[in-house]
C-alpha cells in the first residue's frame, strides 16, 4: 500500500518568489527516506482562504499526511495554525505552559538588548501559544512552536525557517499522529547516476532501448534532469526491481564509459574533495571570480587541502599576483590557453601548492568577439611534476550560467587529471 | 475586478527538490507586473493523474489563467501537453509545419556531432509536434514548442528551461487566449523597502502601530521577510492607497533611520556597485573564500572597478600573498581585527586598489573556541587615505549561513564607509 503525502508551503514572500523555498525540497527527501510518496508541493500566500482551499484539495485527493511550513510568526500575516485548526474543526486554545516557555525563550533572546519593550514583544508572541485543541505540541526551536493535528489526513504544522523546521520535523515523525498516518508505507530504494558531457536526447534514446531490452524496466521510476551542465538520472524502485536496476546501470556503464562519473550518487564535489585529500590546492580565477574557491570551501574540512586562490579579474592582477607574463597577455589575449596555463602555474608557485586550476573566459554580456564569442572559457590544470593541461570550451547561457558551469567543468577536468595521476 | 492566476510546475526532479524551480518566482514577478494576482504555485511529479488533479482544482478555484512549466521534452516522462489537451477536452493533432521546424532546429543543433542517428532523434522529438486542436502554438526557443489553450481558464503550456520559458512567455502574453483571460485586471503597485540590522519582531510592533495610526493602512498588503540577514518589506496596493503607503514609509524612515537602507527596492549590491564606480576595489577573503568577489563580479560591468581578490584560506597565504605579518597571526590569531585589517591593507597594496575589504572568521562546524565561537567573523574596510575600519560580529547559522551572511555584512560595511567618504 502506498502512503501519500503533500507539502503546503505558505507565505506570500515564497509565493511571489522573493525568497526561495528550502523546506519543500528538504521535506521531500525526508519523506522519500521514510518510503512515503510525495504527491504535491503547493505554495500559497498568507491568505486563510487559499490555505484552506489547498488543505481541502489535498484531503480530497486522499493524501494521508500534510506538512505545512511557515506562517507561525508573531506578525498578523501569520495565520497557518488558526487556518489548520478551522479546517480540522478544532478550536484554538491558549496553552499556558507553552506561553511560559515562549516567554522564557524571548527573555534569553532579548537579554542585553536595550530599548525593547518586553511586554509588547510578549503580546506579539502570545498568539504563538494558541494551539488547536487535542493537537500535539512540538516545542519551539526558535520562538514558534509547531503542532501535529492527528486525523485523516494528519496535519503537521511547522515553522518556515529551515533551522527551526528541520529538528522539529524529526520530533514530529515520532508523534502518534504521524506514525499512524504513515503506517503500512512501502519501502522504496532510490539510486542516482550522474553523467557529464552527454546530451539529454541521446540518453532518451538509450532509455527507450532499455524499455524493450530490460526485464521489469517498467517497475523503475526513472527521472532524468540536466543540472549545472551535468545529467542526473534518479531511479526509484521497490526492492524486487533491484535486478532491473542493475541491468540499467550495466547498460549505461557500457554505453557511456567516459560520461558516467558517479554510480553511487556522489557529487563531483565529493569526488574532487576525496581526490584532493593530502594535496595542497590553489585556484587562479578570472571570469568565475572566486566561485570555484568558494565551492571547494563550501565543505567543512576543506582547509586541509585548500591553500587559497587569486581572483585575477584585471590583467594587472594576473601579472602582479600570479606572475603571468604581460607579453603573453599582449600576444594571445587574457582569454587564451597560454594565459590560463600561466595562471594555474602562477597559483602553484604563489601558494606553494601541488595542484592548481586556472580559469579565464568571457562571461558576457559584453566582451565577445567573432574569434572569441561570449561563453569562451579557457581552463588549465597544473600538477607539480606533470605537464600542465589546457582546454578551451564554449559554454552556453547567460553570464551567471557561464560562470557557474565553468566551475563545474573545472571540477571535472580536475577530477580526471587527479584520477590519471593516482592511476600512475 | 481581480484576475487570478496559478502556476503549475511539473517535473519529479523539481517536486523531489533535486533541481530548484526558477520559473515559479520569475512568472510570479511577470504576473505581478501585469496586475494579475497569483493565487497558487503548485508542483507535482510527471504523473498525468496528479497534473490533471491540479488543473481541476485550480479551475474549480476559479482562476482565470493557468501557466504550466516543464514536461515538454522528448522523454516518455514528459506528458504535460497530452494531459492539458485531455483536461481541455481537445484532441492532440500532429502539426506538420511545427514538426518541420523542430527537425530544422535539431539539424542545426546536431550539425557536426558525430555518431548521432538523426532519424532516431527526430522520432524522439516528433511527440513535441503534437498539439491540442485549436491551440495557439508558441514557437520553440529550444526544441520544445509551447501552446496556449484558450478557455476558462486559459492554459499556457511552457517548457521547463528558464532560457526557453522566458522569451516564450512574452509571446504568450500577446496571444488572444491570454489577453482575454487577463482582461479587466486591477492595476497594482508594489514597492519594496529594505532594512539591515533590525529584528523582525521589532518591525511587527511598528506595523501594529501603523495599523491604528495610518489612514487606509488596511488597503496595503504588507509582507515582511528576513532574507540573507536583511529585512525586506514589500507592499502591494491599488493606486488610491498611495497616500497610506507614503505615510508608512515616513513612519519607517523616522523609526529606523540607521537600519533603512533602500526605499526604491534597490539591493545592497546595486548600491555598492554604484558607490564603487570610478574606484578600484579588491578583496581579501578567508572564511568566505571568494564569495564576496564572486558576488561583486556577478554583475556585468563589474570589471570596471573590481581589480580582484585573494582567497587567503591558509595562514601561509595570508602572509605570502597579502603580506600579513606572521607575528600578528601568532599574537592575535588568524580570526582577529588586526589580521582582518592587515588583510584589507594587503589587498589594497597588492592590487594597487583604493578600496578593499578583509574578511576572516570561523564558519564552523569545527574551529570554534570559548573565546571565539563558531560564527565569529572579523571584517575590515580599507580606503586609501583613511583609517582602516575593523569590526567583529557573531553570525548565527550553519557553515553556509555564516559564509553567505558574512558577504552581506561586508557589503553593508563597505556601503556605509563609501557613503561617509562621499559625504566628505
Automatic annotation (TrEMBL), chains A, B:
Q: Which InterPro entries match?
A: CinA (IPR050101), CinA-like_C (IPR036653), CinA_C (IPR008136), Competence-induced_CinA (IPR008135), MoaB/Mog-like_dom_sf (IPR036425), MoaB/Mog_dom (IPR001453)
- Provide the MoaB/Mog domain boundaries: 6-180
> What CDD domains does UniProt report for this protein, alphabetically?
cinA
Family from the record: Belongs to the CinA family.
Write down what this protein is called.
CinA-like protein
Amino acid at each position: 500500500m502506498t502512503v501519500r503525502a503533500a507539502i503546503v508551503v505558505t507565505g506570500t514572500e515564497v509565493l511571489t518568489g522573493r525568497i526561495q523555498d528550502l523546506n519543500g525540497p528538504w521535506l521531500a527527501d525526508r519523506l522519500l527516506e521514510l518510503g512515503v510518496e510525495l504527491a504535491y508541493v503547493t505554495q500559497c500566500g498568507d491568505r486563510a482562504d487559499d490555505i484552506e482551499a489547498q488543505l481541502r484539495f489535498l484531503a480530497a485527493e486522499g493524501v494521508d499526511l500534510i506538512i505545512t511550513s511557515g506562517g507561525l510568526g508573531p506578525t498578523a500575516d501569520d495565520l497557518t495554525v488558526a487556518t489548520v485548526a478551522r479546517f480540522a474543526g478544532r478550536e484554538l486554545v491558549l496553552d499556558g505552559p507553552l506561553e511560559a516557555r515562549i516567554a522564557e525563550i524571548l527573555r534569553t533572546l532579548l537579554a542585553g538588548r536595550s530599548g525593547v519593550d518586553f511586554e509588547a514583544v510578549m503580546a506579539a508572541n502570545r498568539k504563538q501559544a494558541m494551539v488547536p485543541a487535542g493537537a500535539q505540541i512540538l516545542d519551539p526551536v526558535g520562538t514558534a512552536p509547531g503542532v501535529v493535528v492527528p486525523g485523516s489526513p494528519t496535519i503537521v504544522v511547522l515553522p518556515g525557517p529551515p533551522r527551526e523546521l528541520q529538528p522539529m520535523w524529526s520530533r514530529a515523525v515520532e508523534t502518534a499522529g504521524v506514525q499512524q498516518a504513515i503506517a503500512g508505507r512501502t519501502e522504496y530504494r532510490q539510486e542516482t547516476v550522474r553523467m557529464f558531457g552527454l546530451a539529454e536526447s541521446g540518453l532518451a534514446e538509450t532509455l527507450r532501448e532499455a524499455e524493450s531490452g530490460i526485464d521489469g524496466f517498467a517497475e523503475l521510476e526513472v527521472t532524468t534532469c540536466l543540472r549545472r551542465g551535468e545529467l542526473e538520472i534518479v531511479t526509484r524502485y521497490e526492492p524486487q526491481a533491484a535486478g532491473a536496476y542493475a541491468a540499467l546501470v550495466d547498460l549505461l556503464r557500457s554505453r557511456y564509459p567516459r560520461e558516467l562519473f558517479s554510480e553511487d550518487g556522489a557529487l563531483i564535489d565529493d569526488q574532487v574533495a576525496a581526490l584532493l585529500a593530502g594535496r595542497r590546492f590553489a585556484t587562479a580565477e578570472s571570469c568565475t571570480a572566486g566561485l570555484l574557491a568558494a565551492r571547494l570551501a563550501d565543505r567543512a574540512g576543506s582547509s586541509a587541502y585548500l591553500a587559497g586562490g587569486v581572483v585575477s579579474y584585471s590583467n594587472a592582477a594576473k601579472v602582479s599576483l600570479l606572475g603571468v607574463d604581460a607579453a603573453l597577455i599582449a600576444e594571445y589575449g587574457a582569454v587564451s590557453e597560454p594565459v590560463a596555463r600561466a595562471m594555474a602555474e602562477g597559483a602553484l608557485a604563489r601558494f606553494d601548492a601541488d595542484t592548481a586550476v586556472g580559469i579565464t573566459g568571457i562571461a558576457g554580456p559584453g566582451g565577445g568577439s567573432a574569434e572569441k564569442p561570449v561563453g569562451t572559457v579557457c581552463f588549465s590544470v597544473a600538477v607539480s611534476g606533470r605537464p600542465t593541461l589546457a582546454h578551451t570550451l564554449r559554454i552556453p547561457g547567460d553570464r551567471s550560467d557561464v560562470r557557474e558551469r565553468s566551475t563545474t567543468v573545472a571540477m571535472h577536468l580536475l577530477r580526471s587529471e587527479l584520477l590519471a595521476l593516482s592511476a600512475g
